[in-house]
Amino acid sequence: MKKNIIWAVIAMSVFFTACSTGYKHLKTSKETGFSIRNYHTFDLQYTFPEGADTLAPRFAESKQLATKMITRNMSEKGLVKSRNPELMVNLSVQLQEKTQTRTTDFRTDGLPRYMGQRRYSWKSEEIEVGKYQEGTLILDIIDTKNDKLVWRSGVKGILPENTAKAEAGLAAAINELLGKLQ
Description:
Shape: elongated
Order of helices and strands: HEEEHEEHEEH
Number of strands: 7
Structural class: alpha/beta
Strand content: 25-35%
Helix content: 25-40%
Radius of gyration: 23 Å
């Protein structure tokens, strides 16, 4: 019975993970009067938190993919990459390892047993089920002439273990974020 419940929970989580996009959009803010059409050049800049594992093989591939997606999206909007840009696109990434837990329940984790004394008890507690990584990606666009943040948006979500799915999710998130940029 206990194994059937565990398999049902695993099957439902796989189903919901496959059906969802895997990330949640953060609030988009835009400076009043800002329009991408008023600019002609851009460049990229990356911000990583202290202690970020920038040497991991997956990291380099993801950074290269993000650069390609941002460059393509900005080019489609009519901007050209330049060393002296009017707009600076800042990509900020943060990863956190989190622990998934569940609460024990006497109905599924065993009934309290009488030990011959009256002071027996059973207490519910949190137990670790697994670990996962949650990532936050924030895109800032800065007007370099005025040194002012003119647009900001981001996404937050759980990173899949599969590299191909993670890269597809990153590409979709960047495309969707920059699709909002007008």
